[in-house]
Write a sequence for this structure.
């Protein structure tokens, strides 16, 4: 049995969070994001939107941003305030991202607690890597940390090994 370090409640082995107080249970697993081998990260390729149709891009910018997370097919919309942090929940450290990728294998896939930020500026959405251990990739290109990059319909994000498809509706 695993004892919660905060409230003392007993849990079965393999339990990640205390059902009583929500604290992360120390199960001997990694408490930080482990760097992935370079072979698991995508090779860089050209940005398909670099020479895109400006009318199509403007139309996509005015629509709602939806994230589709395969293989579960979970769909999430950008919050109404136009900003979201993507990462992994960690109640013991007070990290509560708007979009928690733990259920999609975030810990095993190399997603940091505060991995990336998506924000809306006027009608355009941007993605920004927050200095993550395993990087954020947009259409196969690694993003420079803390430098916003525009998002478009049909873009593919990759946080560590977790892939997310972006659609505009």
């Amino acid at each position: 049995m695993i004892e919660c370090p905060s409230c003392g409640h007993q849990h079965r082995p393999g339990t990640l969070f205390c059902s009583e107080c929500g604290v992360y249970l120390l199960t001997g697993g990694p408490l930080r994001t482990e760097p992935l081998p370079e072979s698991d990260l995508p090779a860089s390729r050209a940005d398909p939107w670099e020479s895109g149709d400006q009318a199509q891009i403007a139309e996509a910018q005015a629509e709602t941003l939806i994230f589709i997370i395969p293989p579960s097919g979970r769909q999430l919309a950008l919050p109404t305030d136009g900003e979201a942090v993507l990462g992994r929940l960690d109640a013991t450290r007070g990290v509560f991202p708007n979009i928690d990728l733990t259920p999609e294998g975030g810990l095993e896939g190399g997603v940091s607690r505060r991995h990336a930020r998506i924000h809306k500026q006027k009608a355009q959405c941007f993605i920004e890597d927050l200095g993550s251990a395993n990087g954020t990739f947009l259409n196969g290109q690694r993003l420079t940390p803390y430098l916003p990059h525009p998002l478009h319909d049909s873009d593919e994000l990759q946080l560590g090994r977790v892939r997310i498809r972006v659609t505009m509706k």
In short: Residues 39 and 156 are 19 Å apart (CA to CA). The chain is about 5% helix and 30% strand. Helices lie at 54-61. The longest helix spans residues 54-61.
